[in-house]
Design goal:
alpha+beta, 5-stranded mixed β-sheet, globular
């Protein structure tokens, strides 16, 4: 039999990261599709969904960078959101319909007093309209079809949650620094409930995803081409290893690197004095480096250094 024909993927092979300042009114997948067409790229994904209402930092991974997406999504994120008191919405933001109202308006002092309960390791119920899977179905699909969605609370990590501005009695603006999978809409909903009222998000902006900063972001409009305009330059892309820059670095010798590359777990005793102080001994990641070259990622666990992903020396992170 003749060999099976495999269609060659369309588009240019591009590797790297691009930070988009996502505009409001469109989903993250819409942004990915527009950028992919603009660059005529073969493969593009994103490093952390933003709701249609949200704006700000949306890192896009091209080609080989898609392999580092999980590490970008695990990274620390910084947000700024506006909470409007007095109306609960089914989506927990202003895109939804009103399902409950309240005349109660908390004082600034009451808000600040309530926030410590939402910092640290907390349990959080994701919004009804979210991408959480319930019995194999997305929660937002079930909610849109009118089905009652029972979503279990899940662990979340909130490192900072502060009131930064109070424009009027109806609104409050907050700064949040959080870990993976924390829903700002849930934080807004729950803090309003804790204050004896209801509320929803009217504005949400992401300012940072790990090493990807607001200052790095480019506007979507600046990339969109039409007619005979050439596609944007690949020089706009950041290195593949940019997504890993926030992971603490661990220097390794050639011999150590060889052992780790072959999947051998090593005792941390061999690395005493070189283990970064900001690396968690309970499952924390480190970048294994040979000088300025990134070799791979390892995890610290049970006094051992465990190889997780080997990169093969991809240049500076």
């Amino acid at each position: 039999m003749p060999p099976r024909f495999q269609r060659k993927p369309k588009g240019r092979v591009l590797d790297g990261w691009l930070v988009i300042d996502k505009p409001g009114g469109m989903g993250s997948t819409d942004v990915v599709n527009k950028v992919k067409r603009a660059f005529q790229a073969q493969k593009v994904g994103h490093g952390g969904t933003l709701d249609p209402l949200a704006t700000g930092v949306l890192p896009l991974a091209f080609g080989a960078a898609t392999k580092t997406v999980p590490y970008a999504m695990d990274a620390t994120k910084i947000y700024r959101f506006t909470l409007r008191f007095g109306e609960a919405r089914d989506t927990d933001d202003s895109d939804g319909v009103v399902i409950e109202t309240s005349d109660a308006r908390p004082s600034d002092e009451a808000i600040r007093a309530a926030l410590p309960a939402f910092r640290g390791d907390i349990m959080q119920i994701p919004p009804q309209y979210s991408a959480i899977k319930i019995g194999g179905e997305r929660a937002y699909d079930l909610a849109r079809s009118g089905q009652a969605v029972d979503i279990a609370a899940r662990p979340a990590r909130v490192d900072e949650f502060d009131l930064v501005e109070r424009p009027d009695a109806d609104t409050a603006i907050f700064h949040v620094r959080s870990g993976k999978g924390v829903y700002m809409r849930s934080l807004a909903r729950d803090v309003a409930r804790a204050l004896g009222t209801v509320g929803h998000i009217t504005a949400l902006r992401r300012l940072r995803v790990g090493p990807f900063l607001e200052s790095m972001a480019v506007s979507l409009d600046s990339l969109l081409v039409s007619g005979d305009t050439p596609p944007p330059s690949p020089d706009l892309l950041l290195p593949v290893t940019t997504a890993l820059a926030d992971i603490p670095a661990l220097a390794a010798t050639a011999g150590e690197a060889m052992r780790l590359q072959h999947g051998e777990a090593m005792s941390l005793v061999a690395f005493m004095g070189r283990i970064p102080t900001d690396a968690s001994p309970d499952g924390g990641l480190v970048r294994v480096m040979a000088g300025e070259r990134l070799l791979g990622l390892c995890r610290l666990d049970g006094g051992m250094l465990l190889p997780e992903r080997w990169m093969g020396g991809q240049g500076e992170a």
